[in-house]
Amino acid sequence: MDGKLYTQEDFDRIINRVGTDSIKWDGRERVFGQADVIPLWVADMDFETPEFIRKRIARRLEHPILGYTYRGEGFAGSFTRWVRRRLDWTVDPAWITFMPGVVPAVSLAVLTYTRPDDEVIIQPPVYHPFYFCVEGHGRKLILNHLIHKNGRFTFDLELLKSQITPKTRMLVLSSPHNPGGTVWTPEELSGLVSVCKDHDIWIVSDEIHSDLIFSPNRHTPILKVAEDYRHRILVAMAPSKTFNLAAMSTSIVVIPDQKERKHYEDLVHTLHIGMGNVFGIEALQAAYEEGDQWLDQLLIYLLRNRQFIYDFLRSEIPRVEMMVPEATYMTWLDFRKLGVTPDALNKFIIEKAGLGLNNGTQFGPGGEGFMRLNFGCPRSLLERAMQQLKDAINT
Predict the structure, then answer these.
(1) In terms of C-beta distances under 8 Å and separation of at least 24 residues, what long-range contacts does 161-164 make, across chains too?
(2) pLDDT at residue 264 is higher than 70
């Protein structure tokens, strides 16, 4: 361990990412049509990947051979100890397998546990890769729309019950929710599990943002409320959002049922995508072994950024409303009071406000008139972005 104590000043530092082939920064002209927008879109942060992770990778680079490697005890062990500390969740290391990303994990679950023309449910507005994980494999997409109520999303279980048919095989869950930042309560999750259990439906739960929870909310892994339904649940997690490690392509998949885990791993083996990379493994272990203090400081900084946006909108741009996220470093902004079409709103945000945000329509029905803003960045950058938004709307 490097022994460094992280402070709020560590997150204030501006780091120039231009010229690093950053999707967020170097991809601006391709995505938004101009290279000078402030990019607050794709879900990585503009903070340094923690030094203790970079040091672990550097130590591995001191060995002159980068040949085939396997994942030792530290891969599963560091994760199980982390979720025990942070989430009060006990996971058997035998339940754990590897994937090079959470989206590939979801995609492979669709391939493993459903067949062409089976129905798979997602809950819009929701993380947009879910759509092609289902439709790209020839499965029928069923949209169980979330309810926007009291400043957060909630499940529409009555609608869900009415949508299930004999061909419904799976529900893909975003927990915590992306883009809304809702932290599902144990009661909400129990209700969802109950409906799926009644119809023998798989639940594939993307819990990649589970570390990024704002007090007093607490993340509940869905397996904690489904003790008697473990044979139909897959959970995918990763350190990539928490510790800014997206380029490492290293994720954890938890499948408690031995038979179903073997089915999944057999397909991983057939596709030959289970090897991973040695630096991703080193990064994951460092994050889960040494990351508590850094994460605690990150959450304080993100909470202050969240509060800044909320206060700024209320005082300076009251026509733009914010769904205050209970988790994640994204916020779901409601521009509907501006009275413009989604396309016009997108054009306005890019060309007049000079911002690169995610258009709400990316997330499916229910996203019209909304934008997702990533506030995982130094405060000075966020202040500049909000001022540009104010100037654009008020002039």
Answers:
(1) 161/195, 163/121, 164/121, 164/195, 164/199, 164/201
(2) yes
